[in-house]
Fold these 2 entries.
Entry 1:
Amino acid sequence: MQMKWTRKSRLVKGMVHLAFASILLLLWSQDVVSSVYPTNIAETIVDVTDEDIIFSEVSQTKKYVPSVLYEILGPLSRSKRSMHNEYARSDLVYNRMRVLHLMLKYLIGSKGPEVEIRHFVNWDKTILIDNLFYVRPTNIQQVQRIIRVAAMMQMRVRATGNGYSRAPLYPDEGNIMMDVRDLARFDGPRMELIKPSSKRDYYTVKVMTGVFLHELNTFLVNNRVAVMAEPLQNNDTIGGIVSTSSHGSSWNGTGFGDNMVEVRMIDSMGRLRRFAREQHPELFKSLTCGLGLFGVMYDITIKVVPTKVVKVENKIVPLYSLLYNAAMFGQTVSNNLATEISWYPFNSVNKSETQEYINSGKIPDEWSAKRDFVWLRTINEAEMVNQSWIQGPNFLPTGGSLSGSNVTGLLRGKAALDLARSLPPVTYHYLTDAFPYLKPPRFGSETSTAFMITMDTAYRRPLAAIQYIIEFTERQIRSNGTTPINALLPRLVMNSDCHICPANSNIHPDNSTGRSVVIDFLAPPSQDGYYDISREFIYNFRGDLVRPHWAKRYDNIPGIMDIIRDVYGIGIQKFVKSREDYTLDPCDLFMNTFLQQIFGRSRIC
Ligand SMILES: Cc1cc2nc3c(=O)[nH]c(=O)nc-3n(C[C@H](O)[C@H](O)[C@H](O)COP(=O)(O)OP(=O)(O)OC[C@H]3O[C@@H](n4cnc5c(N)ncnc54)[C@H](O)[C@@H]3O)c2cc1C
Ligand SMILES: *[C@@H]1O[C@H](CO)[C@@H](O)[C@H](O)[C@H]1NC(C)=O
Ligand SMILES: *[C@@H]1O[C@H](CO)[C@@H](O)[C@H](O)[C@H]1NC(C)=O
Ligand SMILES: *[C@@H]1O[C@H](CO)[C@@H](O)[C@H](O)[C@H]1NC(C)=O
Ligand SMILES: *[C@@H]1O[C@H](CO)[C@@H](O)[C@H](O)[C@H]1NC(C)=O
Ligand SMILES: *[C@@H]1O[C@H](CO)[C@@H](O)[C@H](O)[C@H]1NC(C)=O
Ligand SMILES: *[C@@H]1O[C@H](CO)[C@@H](O)[C@H](O)[C@H]1NC(C)=O
Ligand SMILES: *[C@@H]1O[C@H](CO)[C@@H](O)[C@H](O)[C@H]1NC(C)=O
């Protein structure tokens, strides 16, 4: 990298001058949005001491002027990355970034934040961005400065938390990633319990979006309150969880964001805006799964409920009795406070069958998926509990990758089930601590795909979907001795009227239980058949209006954009309309090329 810089330094110097000149020109010709805002916007603006006088009047241009990067940017998608000339293009982006870097540093000034050029890899190593600008603001003025400078330079900014998403929700190459984890609140603590009042007759918690779920959980437990929507790991941020409508697995639990009653966020003009669900119910139908497209969320206020002490029970049950039996399945999911079901394929082989498989590589004739077992974890309110029994949060004893064990190949299913068998049959926790958290895989990487389908009252749709995955897997094990997935984790979420939430009450409302099943399955991204099963699944259940979890792996499925657009239909239009109505991002500052394929370009700018 240093070498490249030296060789090209003369060229770069020339470009810097040119670029500064064009910036000045841009500033000068800037069509400033009037500072007299319509009343409905004005009342959402929160006053923050703003030191950046020179920027305070700079808003966004009305005309769309592409940045110097625009024509060489590739979409943030994996197909593009395999193209032969990808390296050359990426080099070109990098060279222009060196120039932009100087300009960004100059315009942001000494009060920061620092801007770095970084290579980005997400948690499961399935998204690689060759180079982007990385900033990690610590106060709101720094956030405002970045946004205003980016707007001036026609660059795009996307907020991120811990990078746990598997979908291309990140900034495009050459643009700005704003890591919000160190952002401090200017008018209070990072987490605050708010007592019921005349405004809201229930407890709420105000939390900065960069706070990790495990930090929030500790705070909730200490204050004896809970949120009934607990994802399967606690190391992601509140902002990431809300933006992607992350969820737990309970009959009465919605997506996490559905509990949000108030939010403050920085819009694309750098203004801090405040919205409450009571006053802006329509906007909240978008914000609870906003995908980062409405601004940089600063803090959110969520509704909490008194915590319960719960009893967690681990059971190993025959797969056939639960997943091929509508009555049993229905009773299990609807009668327990929370339910986690895991199937690890090929887990019922006995000692001699295992030996035979090791010796010959042959799948025993007697094996079938229906003969396998599932690990059923149920969580319910405990009756009388001795305080000393209450345990804190536990990590799953995975000892390897997410789906279970450190054994590789087909025998991992059995090893994973053995780990589940080794768990204590009963433990007690406060509600938020009752969920088994996941550690990162020790070997390689494992990704996850999750599709939602509305559960009908006869449980026909959820069981058909679950059985499809089981039988597809069984066929590949039989025919090829390999498995397309390492784990199937059917989960459930209560539907809401949020426009683009996958657990969506506007989709298939007839005979609906008001809940969706989540068909979540895990495998290393390169595992044989993993892409095939995702693709076959979504096309097979298209008629049942299947939709992907926004944060998981689906962008590799051909035609997925059409499927997403079709399934949400008018929901997408309403989502787009609320972006326009509240003037949060008129010029697509928070957009990326992946999401633009779904939501389109701004019609205002
Ligand atoms: C091991 C593992 C287990 C998981 N388990 C579950 C589960 O049980 N249930 C479930 O539903 N999901 C689950 N997920 C998915 C996870 O909840 C989401 O990917 C979540 O978005 C991750 O949060 P993050 O902090 O890493 O956000 P990131 O992935 O860094 O960001 C996601 C997106 O959120 C937006 N965003 C983040 N912060 C802000 C902000 N302050 N303002 C505006 N936009 C913002 C941006 O659009 C960003 O691109 C799991 C993921 C992993 C890796
Ligand atoms: C949680 O995330 C942090 C920051 O990315 C990381 O350093 C840490 O190892 C993670 N912890 C677990 C248990 O995954
Ligand atoms: C779900 O909520 C309803 C209404 O509050 C309650 O009657 C029911 O028992 C709850 N069910 C479960 C499984 O928690
Ligand atoms: C294992 O299963 C086979 C059938 O595949 C059966 O014949 C054998 O008796 C079983 N062995 C044990 C130890 O259970
Ligand atoms: C609670 O459990 C602890 C440890 O099991 C025991 O010592 C104690 O006597 C119990 N207390 C009551 C009130 O049962
Ligand atoms: C795999 O896990 C088992 C049980 O958790 C452990 O005993 C064993 O040492 C592990 N093996 C390796 C290679 O890590
Ligand atoms: C079958 O397995 C082999 C390797 O064992 C692999 O190359 C091939 O792609 C697999 N076929 C299918 C359909 O998964
Ligand atoms: C809903 O259930 C009723 C009674 O079981 C049935 O007659 C009807 O066809 C169902 N409707 C749909 C859309 O499934």
Entry 2:
Amino acid sequence: MIHSASFFCLCLLLSTGVFGDEVKSVSALEGDSVTLNTDVKMQRDDQILWMFGPQESRIAEIHRQNIYIDAINTIFEKRLQMDDQTGSLIIRNIRTEHSGLYKLLIINNRGNSNKRFNVSVYAPLPVPVIISNSLNCSSTSPSSVSNCSLLCSAVNVGAVTLSWYKGNSLLSSISVSDLSISLSLPLELECLDDSYSCVVAYSFTNRTTHLSNTDLCQPCPEREERSHLSISIVVIALLLLLLAVVAGLMNCYRKRKQSGKEVKAQEEEILYADTTFCAYRVKSTDVIAADQTLYSTVKT
Ligand SMILES: *[C@@H]1O[C@H](CO)[C@@H](O)[C@H](O)[C@H]1NC(C)=O
Ligand SMILES: *[C@@H]1O[C@H](CO)[C@@H](O)[C@H](O)[C@H]1NC(C)=O
Ligand SMILES: *[C@@H]1O[C@H](CO)[C@@H](O)[C@H](O)[C@H]1NC(C)=O
Ligand SMILES: *[C@@H]1O[C@H](CO)[C@@H](O)[C@H](O)[C@H]1NC(C)=O
């Protein structure tokens, strides 16, 4: 029993790669510059070998501090580069044909280790386009006319998800597998009450189009409670302003009275009193400005 358990453990260790033979997934868009990191600091006598594809053909190597890059390899042309401190492989302007398995072999007197990178390169994401979908809605029930019908589309996509978001919450989404097709997703709103956006996404990156206030949908009318709330804010602000002005005047009056009594008062002190009053005044005008802005927003 014990024997079979330890045997099972050994098998597990072997299959999960106790010798460092892990596969790391790397996703990139065409045109990106991709770095496959060795995660080591190279020592003088280290040999680092990079291989690519099912044939595991050698594409780059550092040995005794000499860098070798396969210049004859047609699929990479002049895209490959090696970091001479770490031995990391850099692939510039990556294309879909550079998708595949990259194998790293580090050979030194401390023992060998290897690592694999599964690189997937995807076509760039198109910008999702939002259009009005209500052109032929006029024939249906009259209430739908006031609704705002939208359609978000992304052309020539594969392995993506297209989604509608309201703020940060997902409203709806649709996914396609590998086929390169055009996707679209409708959205029906009564009016625009939040920030809506359409997102086209791979698992590792995305592009977003926001539905801006002005086009396609009318903003929702202001709610009653909201304007009541705004009015009470304005009233409170006005009261605060009044208090501030009264306090400022009282302060000034007190200071002036004091300076009248003590004719010998230091000049600094009087200056100081003036400054505080000025500060008050500046502050109060700020409040007035804020009030006016608030109020006009409510009116429009
Ligand atoms: C590499 O990634 C692709 C796409 O994610 C997957 O289909 C494939 O099975 C992976 N290959 C390996 C060897 O992990
Ligand atoms: C608009 O009309 C087309 C066909 O003329 C139809 O396929 C589509 O579903 C209609 N759209 C809506 C929102 O009714
Ligand atoms: C208008 O849109 C709302 C959702 O925003 C929907 O519940 C309602 O059915 C729509 N009305 C019509 C007539 O399509
Ligand atoms: C889009 O990408 C950004 C950054 O890469 C990420 O923060 C965000 O969550 C992604 N959004 C969606 C909807 O996937």
